[in-house]
UniProtKB/TrEMBL annotation:
It comes from the Bacteria. This is DNA-binding transcriptional regulator, MarR family. Pfam families: MarR_2 (PF12802). Residues 1-148 form the HTH marR-type domain.
């Protein structure tokens, strides 16, 4: 029995997920300190980045929730708070009155562009700089494959045809 338990503890799957969790935790701690200097939480930064990298710098609220670690009510609270701070704006969907979009304002883009240089330095120092270019390419492929398996909605709204939702002229 003791041998079986020992084998389970030494299983490389446990090691892999443990290393991933430890790396993420360590990176998050470094990123959180830097983001706090720009008056952003990790979630707020993620929301700004998702929106800034989306077509028209906006996403449907449900797609934003699917792309982040937030529930639909959680994303509503974050967007509400960021809208009060002037970082985001919300607009109704022209084709579905039950839906709305969140978009980055010019103040939000300014905050993001002020934050990004230091954030990229930390990413380079503590993450991508630890890998050779070919290793980084392979890592991105592996992580994307895992992400797509466990979170198939992570790119929700990314392929949206914005012309089909534009108001009639």
């Amino acid at each position: 029995m003791l041998g079986l338990v020992s084998e389970l503890f030494d299983d490389p799957r446990i090691t892999a997920i443990g290393l991933l969790a430890e790396a993420f935790s360590g990176l998050s701690a470094r990123f959180d300190a830097q983001l706090a200097g720009h008056k952003l939480s990790g979630v707020e930064f993620e929301v700004l980045m998702r929106l800034a990298r989306s077509s028209g710098h906006e996403l449907r609220m449900t797609d934003l929730a699917a792309q982040t670690s937030l529930s639909t009510s959680g994303v509503t609270r974050v967007v509400d708070r960021m809208e009060r701070e002037g970082l985001l704006r919300r607009r109704a969907c022209p084709t579905d009155r039950r839906s709305s979009y969140a978009g980055v304002t010019s103040a939000g883009m300014t905050r993001l562009t002020e934050t990004l240089p230091g954030h990229l330095e930390l990413i380079e120092q503590w993450f991508t700089g630890q890998l050779e270019p070919a290793e980084l390419d392979a890592f991105l492929d592996y992580v994307r494959r895992i992400r797509d398996a466990v979170n198939p909605c992570a790119t929700a709204g990314a392929d949206r045809d914005r012309e089909s939702e534009a108001p009639a002229a």
